[in-house]
Structure formats: C-alpha cells, structure tokens
Specification:
heterodimer, A: alpha/beta, Rossmann fold, Glutathione S-transferase Yfyf (Class Pi), Chain A, domain 2, six-stranded antiparallel β-sheet, six-stranded mixed β-sheet, about 20% strand, B: alpha/beta, Helicase, Ruva Protein, domain 3, 2 domains, two-stranded antiparallel sheet, 8 helices
C-alpha cells in the first residue's frame, strides 16, 4: 500500500490542502501546533472512518465550518490506483431539511452503502503518543484496538460486531423491562413466557458472541506471537512480553478450536473464504447460554448484560507481571511499540501487503535501541513520520537515508510544502 | 407543518405527512393534487379508504387481512391443513402465494419481537396461533418464514422454543442467494452464509 496523493478540505487546521507523497519515508517536520499530526490522522481515517484521537467526528471539522472532506489516492494491494473520498457533514440544527449528520464514503467515485465496506480497502498502522492508552487505560481501549485490527483483515468481522451490538441492545432493553416488572426467574417453567423471551435473546446473543470470541481468540494469539518476537528484538531478549485473551472462563475449549482453524487454513487450504468454515461452535454456544443463565438474576437486577465479548480484555504482561501495574514508563512504551510492530506484521501476513506506517512524534519518546528497532521496520514499505526540526538531523534518520528514500516536508502556516 | 392560511389544507397535508415514506414535500404535492383533480375522483379515494377500513379486519383464524370473518385461504378445504407458514405481515402472505408452490395455511403475526421498540410476544398474534394448534391436532408442521433480521430471527427462535416438546415439526426457511440475481450485488453476509452452506453437485 502506498499513499500517492492527499487532499483535505476544512479538516482540523487545513482549509484546503493538496499534497503529493513519495514512496519510502516521508518526514513531516515543523513546530508544535502546525498540524503535523492532523495529516497523519486524516490518512488513518481512511482505514476505518474514525480517528485514533477522538470518537467525535465533529471535532475534526475546521472551526466555523460544517463539513470536512478527505480524499486519498493510493496504490492498492494489486499495485493499482485507488481513490477514497470521505465526506462528513454536521449541519447546525435550525434548518429542518438539513439538520442531519451524514458521512458519505466513496471508493473510486462509488458511494459505499455501509461503513463496513470501507474496512480492508486501505490499510495503515498508526503509532502515536496516545497509544500508551493501550496499556494504561481500561479494557475498552484494548477491545477497540483488536476490533479495528481484525476488521481490517476480515471485514466481515465488523458486520458480526454490529450484529452482536444490536442483539445486546435488544437484550438489555428486555432486562430493564423485566426489572421494572419485578420479574423473578423461574428457569424452565413452560408458562413463564417472559423467561422464554429472555431464553430467546440468550440464544441469539450466544450465537453472535461465540463468533466474535472465535475471531478474537485466533487473532490475539497471532498478535501475541509477533509481539513477543518484536519485543525480544527490542529488549535484546531480556524481557518477555505476553498477551493473553481474557474472556469468559467457559470458553477454554477454544484452545482446541484455534488449532483446528490453523489446521484448516494452513494444511488443507480450506477456510480461505470462511474463517469459521467447518468449525463447530455449538458446544461453546451452549456453554455461553449456561453462563448467561447463571447470572440471570444479577443481569435483571442491573438491567444490563454482565458477561460477554463486550467485557473482554487482553492481559498484557512482561516477565509474567501485569505491565500496567509493574512496568516502568519506558517498559510500557517498549511494549506499545512491540504491539504496533506486531499489528503491522499481522496485517502484512494476512493481506500479503505491507500497510502504510504512520508514526506520530515517536522518535523523541524512544531510547536508542527502540529507535533502532523502529528504523528497522521503516526500511520496507511507505512511512509517514512527524518530528521536530531538531530531529531531522538525528543519527537514526541519517542511517535511514542510506538505506531508503527519504523525502522531507515542512509543515507551517496551515500548509505542507515539500523541501 | 401549518404553512397555509386555511386549516383545511394544513390538515390534509398533516394527514398525508403521517403516512410511511411520505415527507413534507410529498405531502404538500399530494394535497394539492387532490385539490386540483375533479371532485368525484377525490370522493372515490375517500370512499375507497372508508370502505377498506369498514370492511377489512383480521381473519378469525390466521389473522391475515380479509373482508370475511374467515379468509379465503383458511376456508379453502383443498389446501394442506397439516402445515402452517408463520409470517410477519400480510404482504409476506402475498409474496408466498406468488410462488404457487405452497399449498398449506398461514399465520400472520403482525410484527416481530423488539424490546427496544417495546414490542413483546404479547403484542404479536401468537395466542391465536397456539389456540389453533390446540384445536387442530392435524397440524404437523410449522414453517417459520420470519424476516432474516435480528428481530425476525429472535421471533422465530421464540416460537420454536414455545413449540418445543409439542411434537410439532418446526422448520425455518433457508437463507441464500436470490434466484436470478448477480453475485456482485449480493451483500457480504448473505454471500458468507451461502459459502458456508455450499453443497456438492
């Protein structure tokens, strides 16, 4: 994948920007507050229609305007020219005919019916200071990370997620209703019609949930493998990074299943068109339903579903200790770098194509050995990197100039100009 | 939407505007069309609406729309009395009938379970279905032809659970590619399901 041209309209500080990008490493430098990160953000938005910095699209629109537009020209996985055009409108209420938020995504001029269809068209991995949240924040940040990652590789996973969320909302509505009716579970009375209704949603939820758990289980394992490798490389083999998928304990059966999927994919060659082709999830589904039954009265009391993939987490530890609690700032940064490099390798392995690497102001935060590792990963594929003017002459960038093409751009006065 | 001087026109526009799929502009256009055409035509429309409202009600057996107490399908003794096809709306009955391949009976639920919209099983015509099954021991199979939506699937699951242990065969219609359609226009979920359900030829 390679970005060839980027156009922005009313995106953050850019009223209008038109920028040609080169293969190899593109370095954007400039003072703080000039909009270096905004360029990277706009490119990242083309992977999944949402920003790595905010979930409110409105913040991306230039102050005083009511719509932004990002146009991206890139070479796709078959090295052919492709175009994406993301247009987001947030029109101020007051005019009843236009008071609507709308996001229009076009691929080569054709409007996509669903955001899900954007997934997998353009792949990029971003590494930014905010990524430390992956370690420091709650499980939600890690779920979002793995969900977006799997969606890039397996776009249908995104549809599965949406289905799961709709079913979850329906079930939660029913739970609130039962709570308000002071319903007492009977567990199997044939005339307890409320109970049968809840059984129904349990079954639908379980079916959607085991699908998601199967995907996460498989790809977190893959990610863990690559992360461990990258981490050993950076830390010189002294520290051991491990990722562990944390889901319902009843789902341990998945360990066997993951091997079955691996077998189906690698040995027999089937499964290339259906991730779960030939995989029987009935047993897991039944176990999930049993678990929901055990927590039923608690669920009703809270009016909420308390177990499921929406509560999953990834435990990240180094030398068998939880990284969030026992890792130093530096160790946490190293782990994030390893995770991101693993993401890059995983997408590359699954799509046979190196994604575009977006590096936001990361040179200053890493020590020598970590910078070396990062520079190693920048040698193949396209990279967009932001830094300050001083870092332009850093030894790492100089090393890079010897092995790959480096193009520099100065970012100032709401414009980006090639040096 | 009170934009005009006379309440008569505003009332007409408001009434049209409450119909499904009709926005403000279409409602206005319809209202002015009614006023510009000969009066007999408008009276014909008004009569048609009133006649339909007065004469159409739910069949006392299958809950489909009918002008008789019991609808034509339910009174037709040549139809297979041992199988009932459960659908969400009267339009679905019309669609099934167009196949000319189904000769059993129907049951119209008038909706699907959706807790978010506050629609529970008690709002659907399920009681009538259960009464039918009790009264007619000759019924051997229930075909669930609910929509392939989250709510439709849930309704089908609910009915299947109700009927568990009654000895009545409960089936769900298959999913896959529409005949005569192009693969390229098929959504990815349908295609993925069709792939999983592939058959040796």
């Amino acid at each position: 994948m390679q970005v060839t041209h980027l156009e922005l309209e009313n995106f953050r500080n850019y009223k209008s920007l038109s920028l040609d990008l080169a293969s190899g490493v593109n370095v954007l430098y400039g003072r703080n507050g000039q909009g270096k990160t905004n360029v990277l953000e706009s490119v990242y938005i083309c992977t999944c229609a949402s920003s790595h910095r905010t979930s409110r699209d409105k913040e991306l629109i230039s102050y005083g305007e009511d719509a932004y537009r990002v146009k991206l020209n890139f070479l796709n996985s078959s090295q052919r020219r492709d175009k994406l055009d993301i247009h987001y409108m947030d029109i101020v209420p007051g005019d009843p005919l236009r008071s609507r938020r709308q996001r229009i995504v076009r691929h080569n001029g054709l409007q996509l019916e669903r955001i899900g269809h954007l997934m997998g068209l353009f792949n990029a991995v971003i590494f930014a200071p905010e990524d430390l949240r992956l370690i420091k924040d709650g499980p939600q940040a890690r779920r979002r990370f793995i969900d977006l990652l799997i969606s890039q590789i397996r776009p249908i996973y995104f549809v599965h997620l949406q289905t799961f969320n709709s079913i979850l909302q329906q079930r939660n509505s029913l739970l609130k209703k039962l709570r308000d009716e002071h319903y007492q579970p009977t567990y199997g009375d044939p005339f307890d019609f409320r109970g049968i209704e809840l059984d129904t949603w349990d079954e639908r939820l379980a079916e959607a949930a085991v699908n998601i758990i199967a995907y996460r289980h498989h790809y977190i394992n893959e990610l863990a493998f690559f992360a461990k490798e990258s981490h050993a490389h950076i830390s010189g083999g002294k520290e051991n990074l491990s990722l562990e998928y944390k889901t319902l304990k009843e789902m341990s059966f998945f360990d066997d299943m993951s091997q079955a999927i691996e077998f189906a994919h690698n040995v027999s060659g089937i499964g290339n068109f259906g991730f779960l082709d030939g995989i029987d999830l009935t047993q897991n589904k039944d176990q999930f339903v049993q678990r929901l039954r055990r927590v039923r009265s608690e669920d009703i009391k809270r009016g909420n579903t308390n177990v499921g993939p929406h509560r999953d987490d990834i435990n990240i530890s180094f030398n068998d200790m939880p990284l969030r609690l026992y890792g130093s700032q530096g160790q946490q940064r190293t782990a994030v770098l390893a995770l991101k490099m693993a993401e890059l390798k995983l997408i590359e392995k699954a799509t046979y194509q190196r994604p575009v690497l977006l590096l936001d102001d990361v040179m200053s935060e890493l020590d020598f050995s970590r910078r070396e590792c990062l520079v190693d990963h920048m040698k193949d594929g396209q990279v967009l990197l932001t830094c300050t003017e001083a870092e332009l002459v850093s030894p790492q960038l100089n090393d890079l100039r010897n092995t790959t093409d480096v193009t520099t751009y100065v970012v100032k006065n709401n414009n980006v100009i090639k040096d | 939407m009170a934009d005009f001087d006379t309440p008569y026109i505003n009332e007409l526009i408001n009434q049209f505007g409450q119909l499904p799929g009709i926005g403000k502009k279409t409602a206005q256009r319809l209202a002015f069309h009614i006023l510009s055409q000969p009066e007999e035509k408008s009276q014909g429309l008004a009569r048609a609406i009133l006649n339909a409202c007065e004469n159409i009600h739910l069949c006392n057996i299958c809950c489909n729309l009918s002008d008789r107490e019991t609808c034509d399908i339910c009174t037709d003794e040549s139809r297979d009395q041992s199988v009932i096809c459960v659908v969400e709306s009267p339009l679905d009955v019309a669609a099934m009938e167009r196949t000319r391949e189904y000769h059993g009976l129907y049951h119209v639920l008038h909706g699907a379970i959706s807790p978010m919209q506050d629609v529970g099983p008690e709002q659907l015509h399920l009681r009538e279905l259960l009464t039918r099954l009790q009264k007619n021991p000759e019924i051997q199979e229930i075909i669930l032809a609910n929509n392939a939506t989250i709510e439709g699937e849930a309704t089908a699951t609910y009915i299947a659970r109700l009927l568990k242990g009654t000895g009545i065969r409960t089936t769900r219609i298959a999913q896959g590619l529409p005949m005569g359609s192009n693969i390229e226009f098929t959504d990815e979920v349908t295609l993925a399901k069709a792939l999983l359900g592939r058959q040796t030829i």
